Amino acid sequence: MNQSTETPALVRTEEAFSAADLRALCMRIAASGVLGRSKHYLAMLEYLVECSVANKTPKEIELATEVLGKPAGFDVSTDSSVRVYVHQLRKKLAAFYEGNEQGSLYQLAIPKGKYSLAAVPRTVIVEPGRVSLLKPNLNSALLGLVVLLLGANLIYMFSEEGGLSSPSSQIAATHPVWKTVLNDDQPILLVMGDYYIFGELNFNGSIARMVREFNVNSSSDLEDLQFSDIEHTENYLDLDLSYIPEGSAYALAKIVPILQSSDKTVNITMMSDLTNSDIRSNHIVYIGYISALEKLTAMTFAGSGLRLGRSYDELLNSATEEYYTSDAGLPEEGEPFRDYGLFSTFPASSDTQVVLISGMRDAGLMHTAQALSDTAALDDLVVAMDSDTVEAVASFEALYEVYGVDRLNFEANLVYTNLLDTTQIWRSPQSARLN
Q1: CB contact burial 47-73 (16+ within 10 A = b; e otherwise)
Q2: 78: how many CB neighbours lie within 10 A of its CB?
Q3: What is the value of pTM for the model shown?
Q4: Are residues 235 and 353 in the same domain?
């Protein structure tokens, strides 16, 4: 018997569950722990259950005000909090049924694009974006197959025969935004924003812990610290180690194929090892957090309409005095948050260009890399600048407002673009040393 490839009809909850059964099921889902520690997921599930019992389909604004506690004037067009919560709740419901309610004929689901519950036959697995006719006991096998395919894909990507290029990256590489670093003979230096860490010894002379100190970003910084406060720092040890955020790996995978498609020499280094000579001799493509810009910080903000706020998780619009503040470092697991991604490109010298792909945290960084590898998103940048001149494409900045959960980006808006004042870039202290 052949399986149908058509999307199966969803069943109204009242046809599959009585009101009492539905409320009891809600309690079992909560007790399973799948909803996590956030009170909002349980509140949203309970609200959707009561709407189902009352045969009511709630609106997004109702979920925002009555579940998430948003004010009455909340604008759903500019804040995707409800959509993020519903997206995550949809996944949590699917996760609950992977190990529970094995004898039930139906499972609760939230259809894509809806803010209401539906019942789905248990032989149907509902995932965000698609419905497939697969039985639950195939999940493990499918997961293993996905892992195997991903592994094979990575091997292919990094093999000498396969290379790193893909059709989409080759198309993105032809965009004017990338021509400033790809269409000449200058080598490209890919700079990763890293964080220097050192060791602290215990009384036995063994490494007791590794330390990250914001004012110590290199071996020479550690030496300076040791000389300035030897009583407290005599047990510090240079381990010659640094680390990069997880989001940098995702961004790297997006950007490297674009650079590789030019057939130019591409080298890679850490920000902690970057020299002024490197900046003078290479096009610089930076990937990392704003807080790890280090030697590029002065150049980045010299001609910018933005400046650093009270922390590296905040930027201030100099013209409007508007603050852009990330709260990506604050929410608990599963809580939606807002982050910001920064793109900037400008000349570092008469021969070299800087392309900055950055973010306050992982979600912002990841979205910026995603946008810079997508032709449509690159076109949106040029349109937003209202200019397609060579000068505009070679010297501008953009800021993305990114909504996400658990360091993953889900939705984003381009909230700021600006032509850079290149005369200020050249006059910055950093640039003055290069010319």
Answers
A1: bbbebbbeeeebebeebbbebbebeee
A2: 9
A3: 0.62
A4: no
